[in-house]
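Let's sit down with a protein and look at its sequence and fold side by side. Go ahead whenever you are ready, and we will take it from there.
>
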Amino acid sequence: MKTTQIELTNEAIFRSLQALERVKLEKGAVPFDVSYTLGLNMSFLRKAVEDYQEALNKIYREHCKLENGAPVMTEDRLDYVYKSGKDKREAIEERDALGDVAISLPLYIYPLSAFEKADIPHTLLEHLLWMITMDS
């Protein structure tokens, strides 16, 4: 198998990695080479997510209140505590723009038949459609 340059947004990369981490492939559900290259895809995606997270952290450190150098979260831990309303708007705009940035990665693509014995829930599969082609 060889890689193909695939262009995905930062947000799609993040969701794809989350989906791949949740897919539980039973022994023998996919051929060994598919299992191996899925691991390689995860490595490529993980590196891109690390870069994305680093850029997000920079945005939050710039626009949020800090405690011990880290952005302060709300009590329910669902949002950050921003320095001001203007900072919140700017942070959200910057975060959304960053999520929409497209990154080109060398990733493996698979024929649909490679997963015929795999039990992948559709809620996860929708984030992995970029890596599956219809068999010819």
Summary: Helices lie at 10-22, 32-63, 85-99, 122-125. Residues 50 and 124 are 21 Å apart (CA to CA). The longest strand covers residues 4-9. Residues 4-133 form one domain.
